[in-house]
Design goal:
It is a single chain. This protein has 334 residues and is α+β, with helices and mostly antiparallel strands. It has 3 domains: 47 residues, Uridine Diphospho-n-acetylenolpyruvylglucosamine Reductase, domain 2 (2-Layer Sandwich); 115 residues, Uridine Diphospho-n-acetylenolpyruvylglucosamine Reductase, domain 3, CATH 3.30.465; 117 residues, 2-Layer Sandwich (Enolase-like, domain 1). 28% of the residues lie in helices and 24% in strands. It is built from 12 helices and 16 strands. The strands form 5 sheets. Strands 4-5-10-6-7 form a 5-stranded antiparallel sheet. Strands 11-12-13-14 form a 4-stranded antiparallel sheet, sandwiched between helices. Strands 1-3-2 form a 3-stranded parallel sheet, covered by helices on one side. A hairpin with a 2-residue loop joins strand 12 and strand 13. The longest helix is centred in the C-terminal third of the chain and has 19 residues. It is globular, with a radius of gyration of 20 Å. It starts with 6 loop residues before the first strand and ends in a 35-residue tail after the last strand. The structure holds flavin-adenine dinucleotide. Flavin-adenine dinucleotide binds next to strand 2, helix 7, helix 8 and strand 10. The site of flavin-adenine dinucleotide (FAD) has 27 residues, from strand 2, helix 7, helix 8 and strand 10.
Length: 334
């Protein structure tokens, strides 16, 4: 199918974009990379009268890492593609979790067109970026003719595929904070085929001081309606990193209690719940390995699938998606 007839506007400035969004607020839509919107239009799940294509708008292509060491912020403009973010060495240093999760977003062809901010606006609970924004405490800057506001991930996401954005509002950029010094972070998911959305996925940040775990936060894809963060600091704090085997089962139980997966033709709710626990178990063990220290500014960071390693809590999850990177620790590359 193809979309019904519509008008496409190609503004070149933010001011023109905001005027067009205000003028067509009843039935206009922002078009960024089109990787989510165009399929929706083709399937006639939405039928806007006007598309406002922002890809030629100047001032939306910011991709910077700024701020003092330890408090750096990554700014990702609305037209910056997933691939540009993924390939930035500065971003991989400041927030390796963001770079790692991006490699699980679809295929390179989609990442070449799709924008990271578009993912946030699309608010798909199966998407990696909304979860990473929530887990790392990020925010988005939003503009309309009525003003400017900054929204946390919690404020932005109100339901599956639903944000609090008004129809005349444009996200101009997303801000992802750098990971704190001493933190270890990772993401993993399991999908039926490489490039598919994950059946379940977990992002994790472990805080470590003097070989002792002091904090643990998890975010999830495909098993919660909106990106919620599970803080397991109380469960793990005070555990020596070489003794985490003793608390893994409590982490897994807490994850399985917290999530609320649905079942569909791809996987039952029970299987997704099981999977999220297995992935969390593997990630936690991997991040707490003594050879996996992440030092601010000179990271030695594990990334990609680890589905074949470690002792699981629960039955085997099967093999990973095959997406992942080979890094300093010698793993696979996408
Ligand atoms: C085959 C395939 C596989 C995919 N697999 C994955 C995957 O595994 N994980 C994943 O996370 N994603 C996946 N995606 C989606 C992909 O990440 C998209 O890039 C992303 O969801 C949307 O970005 P976009 O720039 O293409 O936005 P568009 O499709 O242009 O827009 C998406 C929505 O966001 C709105 N929007 C876009 N930009 C703004 C803005 N600046 N301000 C306000 N509203 C805005 C649009 O109006 C629209 O409603 C996949 C897509 C395809 C086609």
């Amino acid at each position: 199918m193809k979309p019904p007839p519509l008008r496409i506007h190609r503004p070149t400035s933010i001011d023109q974009t905001l005027d067009l969004l205000s003028e067509h607020s009843v039935s206009g839509k922002v078009l960024a990379g089109g990787q989510s919107l165009v399929p929706v239009l083709n399937m006639r799940l939405a039928a806007p009268s006007d598309l406002i294509d922002i890809t030629g708008v100047s001032g939306l292509d910011e991709l910077t890492v700024s701020g003092p060491e330890g408090q750096q912020e990554i700014a990702v403009g609305a037209t910056v593609t997933h691939r540009q973010v993924e390939r930035s060495v500065d971003i991989a240093r400041a927030n390796p979790l963001l770079a790692e999760a991006l490699r699980f977003v679809a295929h390179p062809a989609v990442r070449n067109r799709g924008t990271t901010v578009g993912s946030l606006a699309h608010a798909d609970p199966n998407g990696e970026m909304p979860m990473i924004l929530a887990l790392t405490g990020g925010s988005v800057d939003v503009r309309s003719r009525r003003g400017i506001r900054t929204l946390s991930a919690e404020e932005l996401n109100v339901g599956p595929l639903e944000t609090c954005l008004e129809s005349d509002e444009l996200i101009t950029r997303a801000i992802f904070p750098a990971l704190p010094a001493g933190s270890r972070a990772g993401f993993d998911e399991l999908a039926r085929r490489s490039g598919d959305y994950g059946l379940a996925g977990v992002g994790m940040i472990v805080d470590v001081e003097d070989e002792t775990v002091t904090g643990l936060r998890c975010g999830f894809i495909s098993v919660t309606d909106i990106p919620e963060v599970l803080d397991l600091g109380e469960v793990v704090s005070g555990t020596q990193i070489d003794e985490v085997a003793g608390v893994v089962s409590r982490v897994v139980d807490a994850v399985r209690d917290f999530i609320d997966p649905g079942g569909d033709i791809h996987a039952t709710a029970d299987y997704r719940r099981h999977l999220a626990g297995v992935i969390a178990s593997r990630l936690f063990r991997r991040l707490c390995r003594t050879d996996n220290a992440r030092i601010q500014g000179a990271q030695v960071h594990t990334a990609g699938n680890d589905a074949g390693n470690g002792t699981d809590t629960g039955a085997d999850a099967g093999s990973g998606t095959g997406k992942g990177i080979e890094n300093d620790t010698g793993r696979r590359r996408a």
